[in-house]
Write a structure and sequence with these properties.
about 350 residues; alpha+beta; BirA Bifunctional Protein, domain 2; 2 domains; 7-stranded mixed β-sheet; two-stranded antiparallel ribbon; 12 helices; 9 strands; rod-shaped; binds zinc ion
Length: about 350
């Protein structure tokens, strides 16, 4: 009996080695210490033991039971501690390290300029409307009174797409899109991207952005005087109250009469310098009274309605405003350049 007990003990201790898994430990506990386990079985067979040996066997059973219970408890502790150490090691955080800095972005200088321009125009009562960049010939040319043989319609001046579509060459399609579905009074500005097959250069880019604006009401209400007043007010709000503004007669298919608008040179303030070719003035936008053919194209009677329209390049106005002398800088996105115009600074 003693030998059997010794064997049970040795076997159990071997199985309860330091590397024993939770399942192995539980298996030993059930087999040896369980209600119908090996030690219980020994106790049940106690009557077979000679009377004088019973106390010694009983003691031995108790000792083994205690030893194994302690061993199992210690292994459980060890496993718990190991699990905790593992999870601590995995989630180790040194709270004394400096945090990761997240760089703050800011708006591109051209976006800042565009938003400033739209802010001014909205404060003057204009409503901002987005119109499509992919257009058909009618909305980009035909309705704007471009004759069928106008050079702007040629391959080298326009990106044509499949199905008779094209990438708009100006935001003037906005006039047609809005007037087609709405009736005057209208005071609208349409910002957006335009495309022309130009090489990227100091002065031009195949993609650029414009703001188109127009104001239409019953005949006699909106005149050339309003055009001059609105544009002068806008340009002085954008470039400074002391900017000179000059209107020159010009020609565009979609306006009659047409005008080009100059502002006094921002560098020499009218005295004459290399940038303004010593004229003291810089051309800034095109405008005019909306051509009667354009009004007819959208179903307006030119005897009943009239209005003015203007269009300007956002990159070009930004170049002058920011004193930048190369259009490509706006598209290369070199952070050393862009950092000079952190939010708000280009718009002030
Ligand atoms: Zn100048």
């Amino acid at each position: 009996m003693k030998e059997q007990l010794e064997q049970i003990r040795a076997q159990a201790l071997q199985e309860l080695s330091n590397g024993a898994s939770e399942e192995q430990i539980e298996a030993v506990r059930v087999r040896v210490l369980g209600r119908s386990g090996e030690l219980t079985e020994i106790m049940r067979r106690m009557p077979e033991v000679p009377r004088d040996q019973r106390p010694a066997v009983g003691r031995m059973v108790n000792e083994i039971k205690q030893e194994l219970e302690e061993r199992i408890a210690r292994l459980g502790e060890q496993q718990k501690r190991a699990a905790m150490e593992r999870s601590l090691a995995e989630a180790r955080i040194d709270v004394t390290l400096p945090g990761l800095s997240v760089p703050r972005g800011w708006l591109h200088p051209v976006t800042q300029s565009r938003e400033r321009m739209l802010d001014i125009l909205e404060s003057m009562g204009f409503e901002v409307v987005e119109t499509p960049e992919v257009e058909d010939d009618f909305h980009n040319f035909g309705a704007l009174n471009f004759p069928p043989d106008h050079p702007a319609r040629e391959m080298q001046d326009t990106f044509f797409l499949a199905g008779g579509l094209l990438l708009r060459t100006h935001t003037s399609n906005g006039q047609i899109r809005v007037m087609e579905r709405r009736k005057p009074p209208l005071a609208i500005v349409c910002p957006g991207n335009c495309y022309r097959p130009d090489e990227l250069s100091v002065r031009a880019s195949p993609m650029f952005s414009q703001i188109e604006g127009f104001m239409v009401d019953r005949a006699g209400i909106i005149t050339m005087a309003h055009l001059k007043g609105v544009l002068t007010e806008f340009l002085r709000a954008f470039y400074g109250a002391d900017s000179g503004v000059r209107f020159r007669a010009s020609f565009f298919p979609f306006t009659e009469p047409s005008t080009e608008v100059d502002i006094s040179c921002l560098l020499c303030h009218g005295a004459g310098c290399r940038v303004c070719k010593h004229s003291g003035w810089t051309e800034i936008l095109g405008a005019g009274m909306i051509h009667p053919n354009v009004l007819r194209a959208v179903g307006y009677d030119p005897a009943e309605f009239q209005g003015f329209a203007f269009g300007m390049g956002v990159e070009r106005t930004s170049l002058l405003k920011l004193g930048v002398d190369d259009m490509r800088l706006f598209f290369e996105n070199d952070l050393r350049f862009l950092r000079q115009f952190r939010s708000g600074e280009a718009a002030i």
